[in-house]
UniProtKB/TrEMBL annotation:
PANTHER family named among the record's database cross-references: NICOTINATE-NUCLEOTIDE ADENYLYLTRANSFERASE-RELATED (PTHR39321), PHOSPHOPANTETHEINE ADENYLYLTRANSFERASE (PTHR39321:SF3)
MF terms (GO), sorted A to Z: ATP binding; nicotinate-nucleotide adenylyltransferase activity
Source lineage: Bacteria, Bacillati, Bacillota, Bacilli, Bacillales
Tagged with keyword Phosphoprotein: no
Keywords: ATP-binding, NAD, Nucleotide-binding, Nucleotidyltransferase, Pyridine nucleotide biosynthesis, Transferase
Encoding gene per record: nadD
InterPro entries associated with the record: Cyt_trans-like (IPR004821), NadD/NMNAT (IPR005248), Rossmann-like_a/b/a_fold (IPR014729)
CDD domains named in the record: NMNAT
HAMAP family: NaMN_adenylyltr (MF_00244)
Family per record: Belongs to the NadD family.
Protein name: Probable nicotinate-nucleotide adenylyltransferase
Organism: Halobacillus andaensis
Alphabetized Pfam families for the sequence: CTP_transf_like
EC number(s) from the headed UniProt entry: 2.7.7.18
Length: 189
């Protein structure tokens, strides 16, 4: 089985995540993409929404695609969600699977700062996809795949919601409904 791992904060999951997963699945002839929500994102300053809501939204975002699933491996682990720990755990659990790790163009240039990156690179092939506003950089042997550039980010969605603006069509219908139902990201000020 060839599996692409898409790690992220998914605060919230948006169409950019789904489009990148679909295009890498196709280009790399993967069997599945597993979305891996982080418990505590290693390099983000802002604290994310509670894990429960992020997980539920990812489940809803991917529910129509039988080749997408979610792994709770990081949510079940304490502390920061370092990718090296996730890879070791998954490779132990699924020794015959061939994993790659999918990242956006904004992350490629920061790989040098990842925890135990030299060791991690020996364990897994990174796949970098184009992201609007970022140059695709082929450092550290990352395999680059250009995909339709979708200028959507979770932070843009959070900001729009805080200002009472529409996020319709930036997320799936199911995620849209979940956010509305639970009044997520609404500014209290
Ligand atoms: N529109 C996009 N195009 C390409 N890659 C993306 C896009 N959105 C997210 N990614 C990548 O998906 C992975 C998970 O992203 P994450 O969940 O942090 O979302 P984000 O939109 O980058 O969030 P935020 O705006 O809060 O930083 C990262 O590797 C990120 O680079
Ligand atoms: O292991 C690390 O040092 C590391 C540093 C930064 C990011 N990551 C992983 O990269 C993925 C995307 O990160 P983020 O911050 O955009 O959600 C997510 O799975 C993170 O756990 C991992």
């Amino acid at each position: 089985m060839k599996i692409g791992l898409l790690g992220g904060t998914f605060d919230p999951p948006h169409l950019g995540h789904l489009i990148m997963a679909e295009h890498v699945l196709e280009a790399m002839h993967l069997d599945e993409v597993w979305f891996v929500p982080s418990h505590v994102p290693p390099h983000k300053q802002e604290s994310a929404l509670v894990a429960e809501d992020r997980l539920r939204m990812v489940e809803r975002a991917i529910e129509e695609n039988p080749q997408f699933s979610v792994s709770t491996v990081e949510l079940e682990r304490e502390g920061k969600s370092f990718t090296i720990d996730t890879m070791k755990q998954l490779q132990n659990q699924y020794p015959s699977y061939d994993f790659c790790f999918i990242i956006g163009g904004d992350m490629v240039q920061h790989l040098d700062r990842w925890h135990r990156i030299d060791e991690l690179q020996e364990l897994v092939q990174f796949i970098g996809v184009g992201r609007e506003g970022y140059q695709l950089d082929s450092s550290r042997g990352v395999k680059l795949i250009d995909i339709p550039r979708i200028d959507i980010s979770s932070s843009m969605i959070r900001k729009r919601l805080a200002k009472g603006k529409s996020i319709r069509y930036l997320v799936t219908h199911q995620v849209y409904e979940y956010i509305k139902e639970h009044s997520l990201y609404v500014s209290n000020s």
